[in-house]
């Protein structure tokens, strides 16, 4: 086996797939004539022409009917049902035995990896395919040309008022590229991050959760103690679990400020 190819395979297992990743939007960013779309809060899925994979390269056990007529070119998108429904989406998509509830799931495309042409022409390719094959469960996420920052702000307010997660803005003029880039920006009212649970602090008096000890990718550890519902505090978390949390900047010691639990991630 080619040595470089072997390294790429190993990297995909260790670090996940080398897909496009967004940076955080800042007010000084020039996004005029870029495009914007709602950031769907589902499970990201990459179609490699044979199977659906999570962002970390793990197989998604989709029903045969769901992937039967997908194209012979790659797709990148979000498996989704509706806004404010992440736990339900995750339970359906991450189940190793696909259930009838997959009928609720749609595959919402936001990129066509490794195809020629600019962003909108790549999306047009998959839109034509969807129409040709009359696929009902595959959709292309609508892209809106940004007039100015006021236009973006208004759209963001519309999305959040509907309990949407946020907005993605993208430079539509470029050929396909991989990795994190300032040509794709995510717009949210808060920042979010993931970490690994390495400890669980329970109240000796009540027996409910006080906080989770979380380790970030850079090795920083902190106690995550807010954002849990009463039910979640009575639930048994496990060491090794990956959790998402929101935060508002960092302390001088590099710990997330005002961190608040969002959810457990299984993808």
Overview of this protein structure:
It is a single chain. By secondary structure, the chain is of the alpha+beta class. Helices cover 22% and strands 31% of the residues. The chain contains 6 helices and 15 strands. Strands 1-10-9-2-8 form a 5-stranded mixed beta sheet. Strands 4-3-5-6-7 form a 5-stranded mixed beta sheet. It has a 5-stranded antiparallel beta sheet with strand order 13-12-11-14-15. Strand 6 (106-111), helix 4 (119-133) and strand 7 (138-140) form a beta-alpha-beta unit. It is globular and about 65 Å long. The chain starts with a helix and ends with a strand. Mean pLDDT is 91; it is low at 1-15.
What can be said about this structure in brief?
The protein has 267 residues and is of the alpha+beta class. The chain has 6 helices and 15 strands. Helix 4 links the parallel strand 6 and strand 7.
Query: Would you report the number of β strands?
Result: 15
Structural class: alpha+beta
Outline type? globular
Query: In which order are the strands of the major sheet placed?
Result: 1-10-9-2-8
SSE pattern, N- to C-terminal: HEEEEHEHEHEEHEEEEEHEE
Strand content: 25-35%
Query: Total number of helical segments?
Result: 6
Residue stretches low in confidence (pLDDT < 50, at least 5 long) are 1-15
The helix content, as a percent range, equals 10-25%
For the sheet with most strands, the description reads: 5 strands, mixed
Overall pLDDT metric: 91
